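Q: Hi! First time doing this. I have a protein sequence and I read that you can turn it into a structure. Is that right? Here it is:
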Amino acid sequence: MIFFYIITPTFERRELLAQNLNSVVSQSYPHFLHLVIDDSKTTNSWDFLQSIGENSCQKFFKNDTNQGVNFSRNRAIDWVMKNQNQDFENYIIFLDDDDFLSENTLAEMAQNIEKNPQKWIVTERVYKNGNSITKAKNGEGKYNYVKNFLLGHHFSGDATHWISTEILGETRFFRDVKNGEEWGFFLELATKTYFYFLYHKSTITSGYLADGLTQQAFASKIDLPFRRKMMRRMGRMIRTNFPGIFPTKSILLYIYFLPIIHPISKFSLKIIRKILKNFS
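A: Yes, that's right. Below is the predicted 3D structure, encoded as structure tokens:
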């Protein structure tokens, strides 16, 4: 049996959060727990959550101060890893407060996972009109996060991730940055396994809103120690995904990812991508 932990950080978006909660609690599948982490500066969202109250399928957390989405997700992951249900196969799902689960998504995905037990499954994220944001050039099947997403053009767009707690371990989102840089988390997962893409319109998004978590910027200045940390993570990725790689290509790969920590021109990035393509 599959048990789902749905992780939702929220920031000052009470109305959207209400829709988010309703989309989860109305699921027909019974084996899930919705973890909501309130990162708001005011008590509006928290007062709303308290009026609902926790139950067997909902658990609420309140950050003492605004910490950002990465801290909030990590807080929920830490709780799951310590308290996960040992009688089930456990999966986590990241569902932002402006996103909603499609009808019967959990039941359908539980069946899909039982038929095809992958440890990291990626499904579609769609707009309200049903158009998919997620694009998979090669259709359903296995993808390498580095080769097919970061370096290649075989997979693009936001998606819904279903991740087994078996492969999580100590993998967490960057603690030095409040929001964004999700690539670091998935890059760490990519050193452990591929992801399997499945056509399934699992989550619906309200779009990219100007307010909310994305406004919160950085938790601290991205200084040299943080850059070194990111480069070490990239180094592990290179050694895992490109075994036996020779130094020249390693250097090119490091340069390719450098815009993440030190922006360079799009022109230079295109040149580097072409060089890497010749080596692949």
